[in-house]
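>> Question from a student workshop board

For tomorrow's exercise we were told to take the sequence and the ligand below, predict the bound structure, and bring the output to class. My setup keeps failing. Could a helper post the expected result so I can at least see what it should look like? The ligand is zinc ion.
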Amino acid sequence: MKFHTKYLWVHTKNIHDYINITRDVEEAMLESGIKEGMILVSAMHITAGIYVNDAESGLIHDIEQWLEQVAPYNINYKHHQTGETNGDAHLKSLVIGHEIIVPVTNGRLDFGTWQQIYYAEFDGQRDKRILIKVMGE
Ligand code: ZN
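>> Workshop helper replied:
Here is what the output should look like for this input. Compare the format with yours to find the bug.
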């Protein structure tokens, strides 16, 4: 069993951003040399998420609007009593989830046609890290 660990750094221009990291994950798989196994992809932050879905700009806009309804910005969250202002970002991260597992079969990411891996940033404009952990043989 081989293990390969890689860290991606992101620093988004906007507070919210959606970054397609599918190629980065594929690259980590190629570096590892595995043909069968799985890859854990994890946002190493409590105000960001990782998800798998379509790389379609309208859908990304819909996701953003939906999350804003579920966890609106700038309401009086208890978390803000600590001096923080990012209560919504924590809740959005919980809705999206902070990690995914990608199957690897025959040396390829074993995805359906439209599946892409996204890093979702909800409290950006600073350095953030993503963990990619490849496991297999
Ligand atoms: Zn916070």
